[in-house]
Amino acid sequence: MKILVINCGSSSLKYQLIDMDGEKVLCKGLCERIGMESSMITHEANGTKATTPAIFPTHTEAFAEVVKKMTTGAGKCINDVSEIDAIGHRVVHGGEKFKSSCLITDEVINTLRELSPLAPLHNPAGILGIEAARKVFGNIPMVAVFDTAFHSTMPPKAYMYAIPYEYYEKYGVRRYGFHGTSHRYVSGRMAELLGEMPHRLITCHLGNGSSLAAIKDGKVVDTSMGFTPLDGIIMGTRCGSIDPSIVSYIANLENLHERGMNRLLNNESGLLGVSGVSSDFRDVLEAAENGNERAQLAADMLEYQLVKLIGSYAAALGGVDAILFTGGIGENAMGLREQVMHDLAYLGVTADLAANNSRGEEVRISGADSKVEVWVVPTNEEIMIARDTAELIK
Ligand code: AMP
Questions:
Q1: 224 CA to middle of ligand 1, Å?
Q2: Whole-Å CA distances, 47 to 27, 28, 66, 76, 301
């Protein structure tokens, strides 16, 4: 069975074709700058990788180009689209309606449209992707896999905000949590690696966007992203948790309205805003090493907030049996992991520094005498989407 996994942004389309027999990636790629000038496609297959210019007025032309790349030339990996059994779409927001992945029907698309106000930056792009895929691929069954779904087990005391209850009822204002597909994949992998699901697990997905999840017996009980992905820990350009009155305070002083404030908090804050150097953690670390104090502060804030959040989730779980790191930062930033393990000594964490000296590998980094298992588990959201899709079309 061959599954095409799609992740659509408003101007981008990421894809991966997976042969479920052995879960082998046949090709993957990215269409960028859709609807803009100088759009391009990067396609990787058969050991070749090439970026070529292309004209993509909309996602439909981008999908047509993906088909061309998959069926012709050096990156050819199938003879015809009829070899694709199903398409799995990453959808950011499932609201309270979608608690697990589902087959896409007209009714599902309508419900996604209704949910768009909850994720105005993300869900409309997902819908665009689904509709364009329908145009290009015809009747191939399609499945939606939601970023929010894995967090739907949170109890109300964790997902409610202490604002008047009517705003939950009228507008759905509550914590939803995101990155659910990643937290689900790595927690499942943790269970495989340890032989059973840890009773109390904290998963740390640290990348451009970052979130933590507190997971009890395989079910999320709390997570750090909230009503939107802006909440929680400091991220590349997102501020994470701040005192909400800062919003109206700065808005008044700087004469910024909704759009301006959203840009400030989503695109100009986080590691970038504090360091003034970059949103990319590698750049921040390099600048800090070269003596840039604000870059050092940004890196320190990330480490501090991480330790603080892990501590609060350990409290929420009544202790912790395993902690795992994933995402670009979690999988690669050895120094950050070492510092976090050092600061968690009070929980009985000890580190295996030799094991921690690795990047992007599945490895236990806690010491043999550690009371808590600490692991690095590279995430794989695509395989999770492909598995759900295969399961649902069976
Ligand atoms: P992601 O969004 O999961 O792709 O993660 C991107 C983040 O991972 C960026 O902030 C990168 O700087 C960070 N990253 C990648 N490699 C490293 C590395 N070797 N050391 C520190 N951070 C890294």
A1: 19
A2: 9, 11, 17, 11, 40
Residue 250 per-residue DSSP state:
H
Provide Rg for the chain, Cα atoms: 21
Q: To test the ligand 1 pocket, which listed residue (238, 325, 332, 340) has its Cβ within 8 A of the most ligand atoms? A: 332
Q: Which residue in 21, 80, 106, 147 is the catalytic one?
A: 147
Give the global pTM: 0.96
Residue 313 near residue 200, CB atoms below 8 Å: no
Q: What pLDDT is stored for residue 121 in this prediction?
A: 79
CA separation for the pair 157, 108 (Å, rounded): 29
For a mutational test of ligand 1's pocket, the pick from 179, 211, 281, 285, i.e. the residue with the most ligand atoms closer than 8 A to its C-beta, is 281
Residue 214 has pLDDT above 90, yes or no: yes
**First CA to last CA across the chain, in angstroms?**
10
Q: Which ranges of 87-122 does DSSP label H, i.e. alpha helix? A: 106-115
Give per-residue pLDDT as tens, 131-152.
Answer: 999 999 998 999 999 999 999 9
The answer to whether 29 and 98 are in contact (CB under 8 A) is no
State the Cα–Cα distance between residues 110 and 132, nearest whole angstrom. 15
| 283 carries an active-site annotation | no
* DSSP category for residue 108: H
Give the long-range contacts of residues 107-116, CB within 8 A, separation 24 or more.
Answer: 108/144, 112/144
pLDDT at 108 over 90: yes
Taking the CA of residue 379 as reference, the ligand 1 atom at the shortest distance is 3
CA–CA–CA angle 328, 329, 335 (5° rounding): 140
User: What number of residues does the chain have?
Assistant: 394
Average of per-residue pLDDT across 368-385:
98
Number of H helices, E strands in the chain: 15, 14
> Bridge-partner residues for 142, per DSSP?
87
